[in-house]
Amino acid sequence: MQGRLRLGVKLGNERFLALLERAENPQDRLAVVHIAGTKGKGSTASFASSILTAAGYRVGSYMSPFVYDVRERIQINGEMIPREDFARWVAILKPHIEAMEETELGATTEFELKTAIGLCYFAEQNVDYAVLEVGLGGRLDATNVIPHPLVTAITNIGFDHVELLGDTLGKIAWEKAGIVKPRVPCVTGVTAGSEADDAIAGVCREKDAPLHHVTSGEGEFSYHAEDDALSFQTPRRRLTDLKLRMRGAFQHANAAVAVAALDAIVDERRPVLPDDRVKWGLENAFAPGRLQQIADRPAIVVDVAHNELSAQALADALRSDYGAEKRRLILIAGLSKNHAPDTFLKPLAALHPAIFIATQPAFHPREATEVATAASALGIPNVRIALSVPDAARAALADAAPGDLICVTGSFYTVGDLPPQLWRDLLAERK
């Protein structure tokens, strides 16, 4: 599977559909909640999966990408696919992939293989529902092979992967709206009347798909947060005083989109979701690497933010939840090749970190020197370079006082280079 990384990204699904046909079309046997967006789609998928699980259903979750373990991508009721099943499905699919490589369709990519494993496993295990997170874009993403999802959701739109999705918010939104299907309801957190919303609404009109906006404040599908207590309403329910396990004000919109998506499913296909089960599912949902606190003194927070939109949300959360502007902040950032350091770092530079450690993840790295140069250009005074993420963490811990705040961010791969056991080892070394 790892050897298929060299094939890169190949958007378009003719090849993938041919592979799924050889696997007896598992996608046709799934009841799917399909989620796209620039940021927050993984958290939204986690909220939706947790609600459905709390209501007693057997729920498959396909997440993209993973943080610590590749098997995070494929879960049933929060449990990762067993290693034996993962390996078994690779072995089943391997001869089909090899046969297809001899045709004009060519080689299957790593992402297509992982997606095929997830769809096949969910169908085999007879899940009641499958929540699928889009990998890249939407229209040409490998997850976009579901002929009749229950509902589609688009969390938000920002600039990311512009070389593949387009250089305007309208173009990016159009690509992500490619998951919209004829007469299937679509829910979005995108601001009504914006350039991105115009593109999404246009696609929904073409496909006669009902479009529902999730808004902060008043509205048919809306939410309100005060002192970290979340309230929301849909035409089917009104819940108040929820306390989410996943921190950060940005999670309020993600939770609201998840509930709105489930409540927008048409009557004959909608799951039975009692209010108390929705509340439990929201309050206990968890996704690794999303404003995840690792330790307390010093406070250590990791976040998989990797574009400008998510960096701004992270900066806001570090201010409001951790008092980042009132305490000494040590920031570690390692970016992937396809993300620009200057636009990503600008919101975080506004927090005036005392120390900035530029590093690079083990996989698909942007050179640490480039990240450091961008940080210096933004006026961060104390910029250092570490050639690996664990080295950066050791340097931060060596310099941190008990009251300081350490934040590790920039990429899924950066956070993934510091799994929980390694953090435990590093903290033990410090003592």
Keywords:
Protein-Tyrosine Phosphatase, Chain A; 431 residues; UDP-N-acetylmuramoyl-L-alanine:D-glutamate ligase; 11-stranded mixed sheet; 6-stranded mixed sheet
Q: Any overview of this molecule?
A:
It contains 15 helices and 17 strands. It has 431 residues and is α/β, with parallel strands linked by helices. It has two domains: 2-284, 3-Layer(aba) Sandwich (UDP-N-acetylmuramoyl-L-alanine:D-glutamate ligase), CATH 3.40.1190.10; 292-430, Mur ligase, C-terminal domain (Protein-Tyrosine Phosphatase, Chain A), CATH 3.90.190. The strands form two sheets. An eleven-stranded mixed beta sheet has the order 4-3-2-5-1-6-7-8-9-10-11, sandwiched between helices. Helix 2 (41-54) packs across helix 8 (250-264), helix 10 runs parallel beside helix 11 (341-349) and helix 11 packs across helix 12 (368-377). The radius of gyration is 21 Å and the shape is globular. The mean pLDDT is 93.
Question: How are the secondary structure elements laid out?
Answer:
Blueprint: H1 14-22, E1 32-36, H2 41-54, E2 59-62, E3 74-76, E4 79-80, H3 83-100, H4 110-124, E5 129-133, E6 151-154, H5 162-165, H6 169-176, E7 186-188, H7 195-206, E8 211-216, E9 221-226, E10 229-234, E11 237-242, H8 250-264, H9 275-284, E12 292-295, E13 299-302, H10 308-322, E14 329-334, H11 341-349, E15 355-359, H12 368-377, E16 383-385, H13 389-399, E17 405-409, H14 412-416, H15 420-430
Parallel strand pairs: 1-5, 1-6, 2-5, 6-7, 7-8, 8-9, 13-17, 14-15, 14-17, 15-16
Antiparallel strand pairs: 2-3, 3-4, 9-10, 10-11, 12-13
Helix pairs in contact: 1-3, 2-8, 2-9, 3-4, 6-7, 10-11, 11-12, 13-15
